[in-house]
Amino acid sequence: MPEGDTVFRAVHRLRTALAGKTLSDSDFRIPRYATTDLSGARVESVRSVGKHLFIDLLRPSGIPVSIHSHLMMEGLWDVHTIGAKWRRPWHTARVVLRAGDIEAVGFDLGVLELLADPGPAVAHLGPDLLGDDWDAARAVENLAAAPDTPIGIALLDQRSLAGVGNVYRSELCFMRRVHPATPTAAVDLPPLVDLAHRLLTANRLRVTRVTTGATGRGRELWVYGRDRRPCRRCGTAVERGMLGEPPAERSIYVCPRCQTR
Ligand SMILES: [Zn+2]
Question: Which bin fits 11, alpha (ψ -120 to 50), beta or left (φ > 0)?
C-alpha cells in the first residue's frame, strides 16, 4: 500500500504538469464514466488528503468537479509527454488526462470517481501527516481512544492519523523500540506521532524512502523487508510476522531483541 509520502510525490508531479492548465482531452476507461468528457475544464488544484488524491477542476460551464482517486495497493499516476512510452500496459489505465503536450495517466486506481463535493470523501480521516493543518495532539487523542488495539494495527487506521502505510508502521515501531503487538495504551504516543510526522515530511519529495538517514542502496530502512538479516542496531535476525485484522493482514518486520512487548 502506498504511504502518504508516495501520494504526496504523485500530487507534486501532477500539480507541476497540470495546475492552471485547461484539459484538451479526457478519457475515462471505466464504464461508469465512459461518456464523461472533461475537455475544456481548467485544473484549479491538485492535492492530497492522507492517501486520497484530488484533481479539482472548473468546467467551462463554471461548475466545479473533482477527480477523486486512491492508489490502494497497485495504483500509480504517471505524467509524461504525449507519445512517450507508458510505464504500464494500456489496459491497466483507468483515466487519461491531456493538456497541451502533457499526458497524465492513472493506472490501476483503487478508487476513481467524480465528485461535485469532495469534502465527504475524506471527512472520516484523521489529521493528515503531510497536510497544512497537521494536528499532532488530535492524532494522539485519536490513537489513545482505542487503548487495546495493538499499536502496529492502530498506526494503519487512517481515521486516527492519515498517511502511515505498511513500511512506516514497521519502521516507526522499530525506531521507538516498541513491539507492534503492544496495546496502544502502553505506548508513549506523542514521540511516536512526532516521529511519523518528521519521517513522512523528510521523505515527501524523495524518490527513495529513507528512515535510517543513510541513503546508500540497501541501507535506507531499519527493518522493513529485511527478514532474517541482522538488525542494524544489535545484530539479531529481523523477523517477519503478520499483523492486521483479516483479511487485511500485512507483513510486519520486528527485531525481537530491540522491540520488547
Ligand atoms: Zn535489534
Answer: alpha
Of 3, 103, 171, 220, which one is the catalytic site residue? 3
- Among residues 21, 31, 44, 51, the one annotated as catalytic is 51
Task: Give the span between the Cα atoms of 100 and 67, in whole angstroms.
Answer: 19
**Boundaries of CATH 3.20.190.10 in the chain?**
4-122
Distance 239 CA to ligand 1 centre (A): 10
* CATH code for the structural domain at 136-254: 1.10.8.50
pLDDT along the chain (261 residues), means of 10: 85 96 97 95 95 95 96 92 94 96 96 95 94 95 97 95 95 98 97 97 89 90 97 97 78 95 77
User: For this structure, is 44 an active site residue?
Assistant: no
Residue 14 falls in which region: left (phi positive, over 0), alpha (psi -120 to 50) or beta: alpha
pLDDT in the model for residue 4: 86
Distance 256 CA to ligand 1 centre (A): 7
Establish whether 85 is a catalytic residue: no
For the CA atoms of the chain, what is the radius of gyration? 20
In the chain, CATH 1.10.8.50 sits at 136-254
Cα of 219 from ligand 1 centre, angstroms: 15
User: What is the fold of 4-122?
Assistant: N-terminal domain of MutM-like DNA repair proteins (3.20.190)
